[in-house]
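Quick one:
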Amino acid sequence: MSTPKTCFLFEDFHDELPDPGFYPGIIKTARFRRSANGNRMLQVVHALEGVESAYKLVTDYFVLEGERVSPSGIFLARRRLV
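Output:
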């Protein structure tokens, strides 16, 4: 008994991304998490307005502390949060 092969067409991967720019939105969720390396981070999910539903949610991660995180990396993450 043979299993069907998965087949993709180029059109399956071609999708129009929203135009570059700024989009109004709200913060849907913000919660503390642990990265795969065990670093403490903040995960923020933004809900954007004016884009198709496939692109409505955007997730951003901010590493706040950890043994394997450089001081400059922590500084940049905290600066982006302000």
